[in-house]
Structure formats: structure tokens, C-alpha cells
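Suppose a colleague, Dr. K., hands you the sequence of a protein chain of 103 amino acids and asks what its three-dimensional shape might be. Before reaching for any lab equipment, you can write down a predicted structure in C-alpha cell form. Begin with the sequence itself:
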Amino acid sequence: MPVTTGDNLEPLMAGTGWFATQAVVDAAKVNAYAEEMAQGNWTWLPLNRQNPIIVDQSGKIMSGHHRLVAARIADVVVPEAAIQRFPGMTLRPVKLWHDVRVR
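The predicted structure, expressed as C-alpha cells, is then:
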């Protein structure tokens, strides 16, 4: 089910172990990614690995919020190889998923 402006992401993202560090996600971007993922047209890893999903040791997302939300919408598993684990802890504060605005 696509996300729309103003949606609460908490029910979608609860229990994932991923924690948001940005305050806004773009509905159009998330929905476009989710559609590609659901159709099996998504490539998780570019050959040059220039744009991995990055999370710290505690699960705080440093890069990849849109892709992770889209994967939940599409009900696809994010391959571990697509995630780069940051060896430390980011200082970015956690945003509760219900506080992340969908615009």
C-alpha cells in the first residue's frame, strides 16, 4: 500500500530494528521505489557500490531511509549485502517513526 502525505510510518516500520535519523521522507520517491521492488525490477547494489544503505551498530539509518521504507511497503527483504554497517555509532539523534513526516 503506497504512502501518502501525512501518513504515520510507525505501524509500517515497527519491529524492523531500523531507526530513523531524518525527519522527512518523500512519498513519491518511496512509492516509486516500492513499485520497482514489488515488480522485481529493483537492483539493490550498483556495481560500483557508490550508494549503499548505511546503518550504525544500533540500527540508526545514516543513508537509505527511502529505500528501507519502500522495501517494507513492497514486502521485500533487503539483502544484507546491500547494507553497509558503520563500525561505530552515529551522533545523529533518533527520530521516532511516527514523527517522520511523509511529504
